[in-house]
Amino acid sequence: MTYHSRPLLALALAAAMAPASAAAPLQVTRPDITLEGAMRLLEATMEACHAGGKTLAAAVVDRSGNLVALQRDDNVGPHNTLAAQRKAYTALSTKSATGTLADNARANTPTNNLNTVSELLLLGGGVPVSAGTAIIGAIGVAGAGGPGIDESCALSAIARVFPPRSN
């Protein structure tokens, strides 16, 4: 190889490797719930349950399942705080309302094993939160008087704070 062909070889190798590195991004950008969004959602949830004379604990997790914010009323049992967070995590993780997930698990014997995953709580009151087509987090409600009431408060708040976009 001559001295003049070495730079050409290096240039050819660099050009051959460039498309591979350009095609594989090293980071992604995804929509996520903000602290402000979580706080507004909690406020709307508390208002929805209080309108029915209910007390509660509510938790919001981000798209990665991390706790963003939690709020609880006085006189709510301490187990409800943990239940609210686990319901939110379960809704986010499974991308479905926990009431629906619980019903499906009871109806389908193989999915009954979901009850053995300690982080999941198959009890109504957890709902994913979407912005457009992306799930950006989830909310869990506990202690308002049963899974149906918990879920109703969460759905009411989501409709108020993150209404579906019409096309």
Element-by-element helix/strand order: HHEEHHEEH
Averaged pLDDT: 89
User: Can you tell me the residue ranges where pLDDT is under 50 for at least 5 consecutive residues?
Assistant: none
Number of DSSP strand runs: 4
Strand order of the largest sheet: 2-1-4-3
What fraction of residues sit in β-strands?
15-25%
Helical content stands at 40-55%
The rough form would be described as globular
- Terminal CA distance: 63 Å
The gyration radius over C-alpha positions equals 23 Å
Q: Helix segment count?
A: 5
Protein structure class? alpha+beta
Largest sheet features: 4 strands, antiparallel
Task: Explain how this protein is built.
Helices cover 47% and strands 16% of the residues. It is of the alpha+beta class and 167 residues long. The model has no long low-confidence stretch (mean pLDDT 89).
Features:
16% strand, 167 residues, alpha+beta, single chain, 4-stranded antiparallel sheet
List the SSEs and their pairings:
Elements: H1 5-23, H2 35-51, E1 57-62, E2 67-72, H3 78-94, H4 98-107, E3 126-131, E4 134-142, H5 147-161
Antiparallel strand pairs: 1-2, 1-4, 3-4
Helix pairs in contact: 2-5
How would you briefly describe this protein structure?
The chain is built from five helices and four strands; from the N terminus they run ααββααββα. The protein is of the alpha+beta class and 167 residues long.
